[in-house]
Specification:
Number of strands: 11
Number of helices: 3
Structural class: alpha/beta
Shape: elongated
Radius of gyration: 22 Å
Helix content: 10-25%
Order of helices and strands: HEEEEEEHEEEHEE
Strand content: 25-35%
Largest sheet: 9 strands, mixed
């Protein structure tokens, strides 16, 4: 009975106990989705960092992020996502997508569409320090750039690079 209950997509764990003489007690722990896993895979990540497959019949009250990376690193990605959320709060931004490549390079896509390339973890320039530098310079980047940057590359140990979306060009008649 326990095994067949645990086969249900939203059940994380089930305990089945017999109560004498003719009663069965079942305790069910359900998966609590905190993120989508990958793009268009139908997989979710629960609050324990475990990947499970289930269909969401109702959209969550608050939007949940998308995490993408090697399957065995899902718990670490959850922790990294939570840390990024905490670090980005002072500037009023929230990561919507956290991606880790096969080479373990990390990229964030923020709620305003901006992409922040953090690169791989390195002893000389940890990801945490690079994200702290992004938060520190975020206000000045927005005011100094000719337009809002579409990509901020934080992979450099002592600086960063910006890619600003190209402004629409106009022809000589003033029309784009």
């Amino acid at each position: 009975l326990r095994a067949s209950i645990e086969e249900l997509s939203w059940v994380r764990h089930a305990d089945v106990r017999r109560q004498w003489p003719s009663r069965i007690e079942v305790d069910i722990e359900e998966h609590v989705p905190v993120a989508f896993w990958g793009t268009a895979t139908g997989q979710l990540v629960n609050s324990h960092g475990e990947i499970f497959t289930a269909a969401m019949s109702v959209a969550p009250e608050t939007p949940i992020p998308v995490l993408t990376g090697p399957n065995d690193l899902a718990p670490e990605l959850m922790v990294s996502y939570q840390k990024a959320c905490d670090m980005l709060k002072p500037i009023g931004r929230t990561p919507k997508v956290l991606t880790m490549s096969a080479r373990l390079a990390v990229q964030l896509k923020l709620d305003d569409g901006m992409i922040v390339d953090l690169g791989r973890e390195q002893p000389k320039a940890p990801l945490r320090e690079r994200l702290e530098r992004f938060v520190e310079f975020y206000p000045s980047v927005l005011t100094a750039a000719a337009g809002r940057p579409s990509v901020v590359d934080m992979r450099y140990p002592n600086g960063f690079a910006l890619r600003v979306a190209a402004a629409p060009t106009t022809n000589n008649r003033g029309k784009p």
